[in-house]
Amino acid sequence: MKKLLASYGRDDEFRAVAEQIILEEEQKNNRVLARSLRQTLDHASNRAPPPRALAPLIPFPDAANDFVERVEPEHKGDIVLSKANIRIFSGLIQEFRRADDIRRSGLPVRSKLLFCGPPGCGKTLCTEIFAGELGLPLFVVKIDRLISSYLGETATNIRKIFEFARKQPCVLFLDEFDALARSRDDTSEHNELRRVVNSLLIFIDRIKPKGFLVAATNLDQSLDPAVWRRFDEVIWFEKPDREMIEHFLALKFKNIKTAFDPVSHVGSLDGYSFAEIERICVQAIKAAVIERRKEVRELDLCHAVADEIRRRSGTARLQHLED
Ligand SMILES: Nc1ncnc2c1ncn2[C@@H]1O[C@H](COP(=O)(O)OP(=O)(O)O)[C@@H](O)[C@H]1O
Ligand SMILES: [Mg+2]
């Protein structure tokens, strides 16, 4: 086990040690375990190759610990992207891998991305998967905390975070970027706060990240044009169209037995976000588990959709009350 861990990041060595463990288990006559290990190893080697070089980590400044969190990208499964976004992300990944050549040719490398779109459509998920694909560590900046922190120190903290991202190849993720845009708009805010927000924008402007700076927002048109301009690429995460819903349903029910064709329900899921459709699928599958059935029935899915509609109308009513 120690040898296995020591080989982390070196694929050939990892394989050799894993093979050795399997062989030992076979010799000990632990055939079931050996077979299962072999299957896992074979399956792992079919996946996309791991990033060639894992980026070295430099220590994170203590003072920024309250505002930035290192996130281990979890691969919570596959992501469904529009064709346009698949093209954009493949381009960005290729550009990153050839960054030195591109720079040597005197051309700029895109590194500041703005993700826009309604909630639950994959902005956060995509950032995690993107960082994983690039083999870069992911750091999430907690903007709300940064802004509400003691104002005198905020500018210093922002500088530390950006100084860090300038040296450390990473994906620096400004999630809920709306908080920033809102506070810039809000005229009732303290002048000092506005100054801090502006200084954050200037930092974004100046930074040339070694990896990527990604900001995500649920707002679209209402975002200040002064904010837009600072990004090399603006990427839209819209609610899924029918083709994407079909793809998503096929993924969610990939390993689940159903007494019906989930894809035939694409029409009734039109207009929902991925997160909502995911919740519908999970509820339908859970109904079968609770009743110890081997199959998910059409009625399970219909009930889950009905629950989501009810939930939505509740949210709409709440919004109406707020208006
Ligand atoms: N494009 C997508 N493909 C697959 N699953 C998705 C997608 N978008 C959202 N999901 C599901 O919904 C969850 C919430 O999405 P998230 O990325 O947090 O949305 P956002 O950041 O846009 O609000 C994800 O963890 C995932 O389970
Ligand atoms: Mg999000």
Structure explained in plain terms:
This protein is an alpha/beta fold and 323 residues long. The protein has three domains: 2-46, no CATH class; 62-236, P-loop containing nucleotide triphosphate hydrolases (Rossmann fold); 242-322, Orthogonal Bundle (Helicase, Ruva Protein, domain 3), CATH 1.10.8. Helix content is 54%, strand content 8%. The chain contains 14 helices and six strands. The protein has a six-stranded mixed sheet, with helices on one face. Helix 8 runs parallel beside helix 10 (191-206) and helix 9 packs across helix 10. The longest helix is centred in the C-terminal third of the chain and has 25 residues, at 298-322. It starts with a helix and ends with a helix. The model has no long low-confidence stretch (mean pLDDT 83). It binds adenosine-5'-diphosphate and magnesium ion. Residues 76, 79-80, 119-125, 216, 237, 248, 274-275, 278 line the site of adenosine-5'-diphosphate.
CATH fold-level topology of the largest domain: Rossmann fold
Question: Roughly how much helix do the residues carry, as a percent range?
Answer: 40-55%
- Strand order across the biggest sheet? 1-3-4-5-2-6
Please work out how many helical segments DSSP would assign: 14
Class by helix and strand content? alpha/beta
CATH superfamily of the largest domain: P-loop containing nucleotide triphosphate hydrolases
Radius of gyration from CA coordinates: 23 Å
Mean pLDDT: 83
